[in-house]
Each structure stands twice: as C-alpha cells, then as structure tokens.
Amino acid sequence: AASELIRNNVEPILEQYRPVILSSLKFSKLTLGTVAPQFTGVSIVESESDAGGVTMELEMQWDGNQSITLDVKTRLGVGLPIQVKNIGFTGVFRLIFKPLVDEFPCFGAVSYSLREKKKLDFTLKVVGGDLSTIPGISDAIEETIRDAVEDSITWPVRKIIPIIQGDYSYLELKPVGTLEVKLVQAKDLSNKDLVGKSDPFAKLFVRPLREKTKTSKTLNNQLNPIWNEHFEFIVEDANTQHVTVRIFDDEGVQASELIGCAQVPLKDLEPGKVKDVWLKLVKDLEIQRDNKYRGQVHLELLYCPFGSESSIMNPFNPDYGLTTLEKALKSGVDETETDPGKIALHKKKEVILRGVLSVTVISAEDLPVVDFMGKADPYVVLIMKKSETKVKTRVLTENLNPIWNQTFDFVVEDALHDMLIMEVWDHDTFGKDKIGKVILTLTRALLEGEFQDSFPLDGAKSGRLNVHLKWTPQPIYRDL
Q1: Is-contact 141 70, C-beta < 8 A?
Q2: Under a CB-based contact definition with an 8 Å cutoff, are residues 153 and 113 in contact?
C-alpha cells in the first residue's frame, strides 16, 4: 500500500522535472524492501518555535533494499527499463505544528519539508544492457531525480496537511523578491565535440521546474561564448535558495551533454547591490567526482526584495529614475494589484537605454614580453559589440607599461544589451599579435555613472588595463 501511494505521488513529480530528451518516465516496479528508515536524532528548533507553533527536526538515515525499475522512453522512440539501485539517503526533515489551538490534538495543521539533504546516492543500470551506450540519458535521468528531490520537498518548499478544518493558506510558500541575472560569458569550456568545438548554451534556475528554467541562445563552435543575456527569477526564501547555472553542449537531436555547472547561494547577495562573479564549472554540485577543469562562467546578480524597489537602483530594469506614476504608466501595472509575484512578472514596455559612453584608456602595466627584443609595441582596440564600432589607440613602441590617456566616445543605442571589448595588441612589422583582452558589460557604468578601475588581461600571462568609463544617459521607451 505504501509503495502504491508513493508511486501515485512521485510519478507526477517526476513528470514535472522530466527533461525534453525523454518522452515519458514512469515506474514499472516499485517496492520499498524490508529495511526501515532510522531516525537518529530529534530536536526542537527554539528559534523557529513560538506561541503560534512548534518546529521539530528529525534526522533520518535510510540504506534500504528497495527494488525500483523505471520505464523510460526517449524522444527517438527507444524504450529502456532502468533499475535504480543502491539508494542511500541521509537528511533532516522539518515538521511544523502550526497553529496551536485549544482543541485536540492542539495544532491545526502539520507542515513538513526536507530541511537539509546531507546525502543522496544511487546508481542507474539498464536491465540487460549498458546505459553508457546511449549518450546523455544517464545524466538526464539522474538530473531529473535530483531536481525532483531538491525542488519538490526541500525547504523552503513545504507540504501542508490540515488536521483541523480551516484556512491555512498563510502557511504556504510565498514570493519575497526578484533575482536579476545577467549571463555574461564563459571561457575555457571543455570541448565535447570530436570535430570542431562545442556548441554551448546555458540553463539557469532558482527552482528547476521546466516553466521556471531559463535557457540562453546556443552559440555554435565556441569555447569562449559571450551571451550577455538577462533573466529574471522569483525568490521565495533568500536565506536558503540558490541560483544554478548549467552549461551544455548542443548535440542536435541527441541529448545535450553537460559541460559543467555552478551555483551561488542567494544569502551571499547583498540586497540592491550588483554582484559580479566568475564561477568555476564542476561536473556535479553535490558529489565532486573529478577535479577536471571545465571552464568558468561569468554572471552579474542583483537581488531585490519586494517593498524595497523604490530605494534600489536596478541597472537591469532602470526604472529607478521614474516616479511611481511614471512607472505605472510605463509598465501598465494595476496599482490595486497586491500580489507581488504578479506585479514583478507583469509585462512591461521595453526599456532602451541610449546614451554616450566615454572610455579613457589610461594605461597598461606588466604586459608580457612578446618579441625577441624583450619588449612589446602595444596598442588597444576598443569595440562596441552590438554596433561593431571599432577604434584604436596610438602604438607605443618598446613599452611593457604604456601610458595612453586617450578618450573615445561611443553612441550606444541599447546599453542594457551591449558590451565593451578592449583588446591589447602588439604591433609588429611582420604582423600583429593579440596580447589579451578585457570584456565589460555596461552594468557598472549604468549604476555608478562614472568609475575608474584596473582589469586583468584575459588570455595573457600577465598584464592589467587601466580605464575610466563615464555614462551620459538618454533613455527612450518603446512599446513591446
């Protein structure tokens, strides 16, 4: 009876997280075995308990002898019976008895959630075959199972069981803010293709439901892709949730192959402050199966709690210069709407930040030696990515610490989606050699208006480029 109850409840959950490469994912056999879970610790969480309710946590360990077989069908029509074996689980479950009432059993409802998943191990095996002969299927199934556990019962998600009849909707998970993510670029991605280079794309999510997962464009034949794409997510608990990015190689009709993944805990973000991060890609976020270098991904992150929008300058959605009335006119949001999640996701008019970007190339320092004389003849090429406008500084001969102090003005038509690329070259009589480059979004310029900083040269053994940027805005608006 318990097995049938689990089957009826778990199959719809697996369907929610089923990847596109699979057309169906169901149980053909499910028995829980004879080994019962062990509860190794019980505690009352005093910080979460008050006159309104009691919070209890139970640590559970289960290394069972269950027998589980999944009936998997791929988009190519291939059917596979796959055994899920050697399941080992250790975690902490949270029970919340709330509200406390005067009648028996003294609480109105019970909420339960997996507060902490300490370990979840299992192996997959095709009945009578080898799963590795079908590329991507094993990773897709394992990813589905882990995502389902992570998102369907792991805190802050909670299940509410009414004990006494009443309205307990206030106990449900509710949105508390928005997370703005700019997927800037990746570099040094490991190559998954035998011929040519990988065709990378990214998937990003706070919760891995299909409708809440964002997917970037695919950039063909590229190990150093530049996306500069912006995504928005709803946050339900900034203290425990995280944003995850997975980079894949697009394999066409076959399952996309994972290059690597990374994540950032939202508790590491200061509300209202843009965080610029480079993250090292790993094969698995939970079990470090290898130490192979898979590349890095560059993100810009901004967390905005609901209710603080008026005090936060958001460069990804630059309404901070507008009055409340102007925001309402521009966005079309009903001022009587009270659901913050609906307001945040309301369709807005497109914002086009037009303006002038003034770039002063001040100097470079500690450039690497690139010619036989132990020197270099450096100059800098500046490129606006969208317009492909290109200018360059003068050449300074035999100098590893050149000082240019040259200023260039760019008319930028869409600053939210443009990038500044600065390439340092060595001018040689017999040719030109790229020393290194710096790639910048315009986020910081939009936010600060003007700044000066030093940036390491990507692709060079050493060297930094010192620049000053100033942004003069001329915003315009256009109906979507």
Answers
A1: yes
A2: yes
Q: Tell me which residue of 300, 264, 327, 302 sits closest to 177, measured CA to CA.
A: 302
Residue 11 DSSP SS3: helix
Q: Which residue is listed with tokens 């009352």? A: 44
Q: Are 15 and 23 in contact (CB under 8 A)?
A: no
The model carries a pTM of 0.76
- Encode pLDDT of 248-280 as tens digits: 998 776 778 889 999 999 999 999 888 999 999
User: Is there a contact between 119 and 91 (Cβ–Cβ < 8 Å)?
Assistant: yes
* β-strand partners of 205: 244
End-to-end CA distance of the chain: 54
Strands (E), 366-463: 378-384, 389-392, 403-412, 419-428, 431-441, 450-456
* Nearest C-alpha neighbor of 113 from the set 159, 65, 173: 159
Place of tokens 């610790």: 41
Give the distance between the most distant pair of CA atoms in the chain.
91
Is-contact 204 183, C-beta < 8 A?
A: yes
| Of 300 and 310, more confident | 300
- Percent of the chain exceeding pLDDT 70 equals 84
pLDDT one-digit tens code per residue, 11-49: 888 888 887 778 888 888 888 778 888 888 999 988 777
Amino acid identity, position 285? L
